Amino acid sequence: MILSDIILGAPNWLIGVVIAAVAFVLAASWSYLTTRGLGFVKTAALLLKVVGVLLLLACLLEPMQRQTRPRPQANVMALLVDDSESMNATFAANKPTRHQVMSQQVASDEADVQPWRTKLAQMFDIRDYAFDSQVRSLDASNGLTGKGRSSSLISSIDSVASRLQHRSMAGVILWTDGNATDLPLQTRDYGELGFPIFPVIDDRVVEMPDLQVADVSVAQTNFETSPTTVSANITSTGITSQSVVVSLMSQASKSKLIQSQTVTVTDGKPTNVTLRFRPEKPGVQFYTVSVAPRNSDAEVTVENNKRTVVVDRDRGPYRVLYVAGRPNWDFKFMRRALGADHEIELVGLLRIAGRQPKFSFRGGASSDTNPLFAGLGKDEEETASQIDEPVMVRLGVKESSELSSGFPQTDEELFLYDALILDDLEADFFNQDQMLRIKRFVDRRGGGLLMMGGQESFDRKSMRGTPLGDLSPVYPTDGLSATDRALDEDQEYTWNLSREGWLSPWLRLRENEATEQSRLQTMPKFRSVNLVGSLKPGARAMVTLTSSDGEPEAALVTQRFGAGRTAALTLGDLWRWSMRTPAAIGGTSSATDLPLEDSSRAWRQLVRWLVNEVPPRVRMEVIPSQSAHLPTQITAMIRDPDFQPLDNAQLSLTVTTPEGESMEVSAEMSDQEPGVYQAEFWHQSTGGYLATLTAENEDGSFIGSDEAGWAVDQAANEWTDLKINTDLLEEIAIESGGQLVRVSELDRFVDELTTRDVPVTETHLVSLWHQSWVMLIAIACLCGEWIIRRTRGLA
Questions:
Q1: Which one of 571, 590, 611 terminates a domain?
Q2: Among 668, 672, 675, residue whose Cα is nearest residue 639
Q3: Measuring CA to CA, which of 246, 489, 721, 765 is 20 to 30 A from 158?
Q4: pLDDT at residue 545 above 80?
């Protein structure tokens, strides 16, 4: 209370009251001075009597205080109500839910209105809003339903602030559980809103039993025994030491059960469940991970007991070009192994005869045609290789014109392949243009390159200062001739995985370390290895060879190069692995234990690794949105045959919803990056969405297609946390200048609003002398003085 705010209603009595007060104080003091008794007792009695009488004398002046209060109906108080499903959480049987309690409290009908709301309406202009995925005005025709699939709390506060930015805002009374589905990634300053927020929370704190799939993740590898791994975190609240069943079901096969596990959950601790399986077919597929208790204990909700996962298994066929300097056993076993993979197409280009000098002393019957083609007929001899050209054999080609001129002569021709394997080729096999084309194949096109060991491989002449040398993950050796590059054939070398190799699933052939160690011990000893120099920066040795004298040599080295990847396999006799019989290693006759099966799987996984990240001409990426007020971003990258960005392509983009409805979506060319097209899709329901993209040139010729999928789990996200998020609500209240309010404190809270700062106020006078506390204090003082006099013998 400030003295400048005190006004006297009867100032004419001031002189008389002052004289009377002074006279009374003097008389009372003289009276107690002449009375016998202890000093502090007489002082206490005197003070009580003086205070009581002075209060009564002050009432004669009719003192009043000048106060400010909100001008009635001049300030807006917004009521923002959470209308999402999570507000329907049931505390116990026959007990009202949060939504029911809230609906009763905020009701505006005259028959149901609460006293606190009536008092609030007398002071403020109340605006009712409800929110779930977005904000809407709340009135009789648009009431609360409790069926919202998300809680866009933060964006709803911003929306209310935007709607009422030109009004005098007294604050926002917020009814929610605080479990927002649109929390910002960065820290938010709620003090910038310009008005206080008053979150209202339930008084009841009850442990509600619930079981949920908190989150799921999908990992795909080139590991044949388990190419797809789904990891799910199962959390429980109020459920301890119970067995639950975690199931993985395919949505495409009428909820066909793929796999299930029984685990024991502990209250408050997440339980990780790993499900490994092989998808039934390539492409985008949707699965459901669900959890259910074995007994019939009731849960608060089952909406968070399942989540949708998307598995995008690589779609081929991937084309691999194998170029070898001579026929060899490695190609035979590689071709046999890849024949079992329907997603890989192996095309071979093998030299069966080298070029010969054209200028030589020959007889008159000699010809420029290579003698290998002599006697095959006129037609064959006309198309045969010349004597100064190598004789190449094509295997696995689709058309007769494919590789008819030998190694691809243009970028467009080479870029049709996803990976390139070079085996036992000397320096002069490629000209400079061809080596630069291979470099562009890896760097720009993003292809995979594997350089294999052999008699002519990793020669310093072909490696140093050439594009092939740039692509190699290892440096060539110095001072060694072509015949000295092979290690001593009397040495035997053992195949070992490096630390990086153990961490790479595509190099492992067993499910655990113990069985993989046992398998490595059964591998044959190798004798033909190319000497190489040190590893280049960024390269990693995945496999090493250990000689009998303990010296390690790099056997398989990999590195990233531009948009692609390269690898060097320095072994020249890897075929030994495929030549062994079970009896040679003391094994059984089981097909799965055959060394041939292991080597075949190793070939498939190595080639799969080569093509795993090779981009197609048409590629689509999706950034899914779990919030209903933000769209899913779809980006398409289109490339021409030379893998340069292609503008002005004609795109057809279709999105299939969980209900099976197909919707056409328009994709616009980006103004920031060439060859990039962008689209937005607003989802309305929960489940899996499939986007299918087809690209054509301006003349209508087909470029390519792609598909991508994403999952929207609004219900599971809405029910992630059943407890009231008090921490978030308290943060919002404190930073905005408000306070947390409990339902039982609403009446007192509304009364206190009159003392808060609001934009529009008015001044009014309060009669202090007319307050009951003044009379009570005066009576208490006089009664106290009388009691002291009677008990201490001062009367």
A1: 611
A2: 675
A3: 721
A4: yes
